Every structure is written in structure tokens, then in C-alpha cells.
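Deliverable D2.4 — example input (C-alpha cells):
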């Protein structure tokens, strides 16, 4: 849309204010802003890639399940698979399988993927699901701005800041599969520009994954005429028949002036029981702990960011297909920095990092 106003005179060295009322029809989409496509805020209709925004209201409706990927199950352009209660994989542009990970997943800029498997442990999300302030899925290559593992897109999730969500909340959930879940959060102003937030929770439930040690779970294609139920039997049974998940986190924000924010955050997740489909067959997590820490300094023209992710198997894990033990200990250290500037009278913008 455009509008003109004739006959406006401005004296040399002076200012003049012009108020003009227009009758344009503004669509709902024109009011939605996104930040993940260009790593800056822009209207969704001006973003140079296809992007889907999951609203805070939708997150709130589905938050009791604790299954973050379910927010994307019916998103246009998404291929979605689920192999267990917390074993999800999704992709875009038709490239999905139960093992394919080509969408970079970020939580407040942090990639929580397991390096050994190259996949997300969705059971190890260390905050209540309704702590998400925004979820944006960019469908299309994002490696120019985000680096590796963004071949098919970027899933960018941002949690709520303590300053914007002061107060407390407790949630108790029960449901099918003998599910019982409790989580809480509390945020408050601490003074001198400091704000703090603490979150935690615990869940216990059965899983719809069953053992394939005695008999096959379902029929698959057989290579010998006359045979049925040819799904290979696994070498070892499930070690646990229920899932137990505990998590907690602590965050502090320090506001420096009007545009800069320093964030310090840490947390952990402890999980037992979830089964994951991998390239060597199914693997059950008997007991693992995933702590993390991050520090960030954000301002208008620069961003400094560092995080540490760790994963340790506290009990032996087994490949159910082969029966062989799997031991894993991983530590990921990540440091990055960016600056940006405009040129050609704000018509161009460069990001260097």
C-alpha cells in the first residue's frame, strides 16, 4: 500500500508533522513478526523464506503433554514420524525417515542434540513446555546463517524471559499410560536490573514401546515364501517398562541500559526408560543425565554467546537388536559472536560472525 499527501511545506531547519488516516485492510499475517529467517525481526510477509510460527496460545493448549514435537505434527510442509512416546523425528521437503536429522533445532540459540546419534532427545527438554515464548520453523536451507545441520531448515525455540513473566505457576497432569506429571516455574525481580527464574518438574509414565524379544511386534515383508511376521526379534528385552523424567533449570537476566541484556542460565535433565530408533536398531536409555549451561550478551549491534552441553550414561545402555552395550559421554563447547551494520541509507544490512 502507499499514500500521498500534497501541499506539505517544511521550512528550512524546521520540522513538520503530518497525520494521515488511511482505510487499508490489514491482514492477520501482516501483524506477525519473525526473527529466525534473517536473524532479525521482520514481518512474516517480508521474510525471504517459508516460515511457520506456533502461537503462544497453541503452545499453552498442548503444554500438558510435554511433547514439544507435537506442536509441529500438522505444520504445512513437515514430514513427521513417531517411533515411541518421546522418539520423534521431523523434516521438510520430503526427506524424512526415522533417522534423518536435517533440521537444526535450537533452544535459545543452544543446540541440544546428541553428537553420537545426531538426534534430539525430546524427553530431555529441561523446562515446562509452556515456558516457550515462540516456536518458528524455517522450511528451507539455513546453513548460510546457522552453520551445519540446517540443510532442510531451522527450528528456533525461545523461552520466556523472567522479566516478562513474573509470578509462579504449578501444573499437575494425569492421563493415559499411567501418566503422572508435575512441573512448576517461578520468576521475580531481584533488584538492580536483575531478574531470576527457576523451573522444575518430574514425570512418570508407561510407554507404548513393547519388547520384541519373545515375539515380533507386527508383520513386515518376508523374503521367503510362506513366512509371516518377519520383523527380526531383538537380542535383549527392554530393561525398563516405564519412563521417568526429571528436569530443572535456573536463569538470571541483567539489563544493562535500554538495549543490552546479559543472561546466565543452567539446568539439567535426568531420564530413564525412553526407547530410540537408531541406525543400529532400537536403543533404550536406562539412565542418563544431560546438564547444560549458557551465557549470552545481546545488544542492538552485537551478540556474544557461549554454551556447554553434556550427556552421560549413568547405567549401561544396550542395543536391543544386537545385545551389545553402549557407553556414551559427550561434552559440547560452543562459542560464537556476531555483529551487524546497515549501509546505503538502511537499504542494505550485513551480518558478520
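Example output (designed residues):
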Amino acid at each position: 500500500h502507499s499514500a500521498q499527501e500534497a501541499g506539505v511545506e517544511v521550512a528550512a531547519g524546521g520540522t513538520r508533522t503530518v497525520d494521515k488516516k488511511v482505510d487499508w485492510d490489514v491482514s492477520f499475517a501482516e501483524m506477525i513478526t519473525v526473527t529466525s529467517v534473517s536473524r532479525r525481526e521482520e514481518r512474516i510477509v517480508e521474510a525471504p523464506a517459508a516460515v511457520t510460527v506456533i502461537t503462544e496460545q497453541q503452545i499453552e493448549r498442548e503444554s500438558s503433554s510435554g511433547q514439544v514435537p507435537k506442536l509441529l505434527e500438522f505444520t504445512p510442509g513437515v514430514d513427521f514420524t513417531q517411533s515411541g512416546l518421546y522418539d520423534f523425528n521431523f523434516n521438510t521437503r520430503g526427506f524424512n525417515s526415522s533417522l534423518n536429522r536435517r533440521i537444526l533445532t535450537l533452544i535459545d540459540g543452544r543446540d541440544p542434540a546428541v553428537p553420537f546419534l545426531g538426534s534430539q532427545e525430546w524427553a530431555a527438554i529441561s523446562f515446562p513446555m509452556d515456558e516457550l515464548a515462540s516456536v518458528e520453523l524455517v522450511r528451507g536451507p539455513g546453513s548460510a546463517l546457522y552453520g551445519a545441520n540446517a540443510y532442510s531448515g531451522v527450528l528456533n525455540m525461545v523461552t520466556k524471559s523472567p522479566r516478562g513473566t513474573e509470578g509462579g505457576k504449578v501444573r499437575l497432569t494425569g492421563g493415559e499410560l499411567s501418566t503422572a506429571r508435575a512441573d512448576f516455574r517461578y520468576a521475580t525481580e531481584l533488584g538492580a536490573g536483575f531478574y531470576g527464574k527457576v523451573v522444575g518438574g518430574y514425570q512418570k509414565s508407561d510407554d507404548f514401546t513393547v519388547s520384541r524379544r519373545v515375539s515380533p511386534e507386527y508383520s513386515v515383508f518376508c523374503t521367503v515364501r510362506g513366512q509371516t511376521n518377519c520383523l527380526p526379534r531383538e537380542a535383549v528385552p527392554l530393561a525398563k517398562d516405564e519412563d521417568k523424567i526429571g528436569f530443572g533449570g535456573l536463569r538470571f537476566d541483567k539489563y544493562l541500559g535500554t538495549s543490552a541484556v546479559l543472561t546466565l542460565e543452567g539446568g539439567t535433565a535426568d531420564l530413564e526408560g525412553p526407547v530410540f530408533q537408531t541406525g543400529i536398531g532400537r536403543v533404550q536409555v536406562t539412565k542418563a543425565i544431560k546438564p547444560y549451561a549458557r551465557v549470552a550478551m545481546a545488544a542492538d549491534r552485537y551478540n556474544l554467546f557461549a554454551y556447554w552441553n553434556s550427556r552421560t550414561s549413568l547405567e549401561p545402555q544396550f542395543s536391543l537388536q544386537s545385545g551389545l552395550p553402549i557407553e556414551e559421554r559427550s561434552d559440547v563447547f560452543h562459542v560464537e559472536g556476531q555483529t551487524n551494520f546497515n549501509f546505503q541509507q538502511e537499504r542494505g544490512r550485513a551480518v558478520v560472525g
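The two ends are 36 Å apart (CA to CA).
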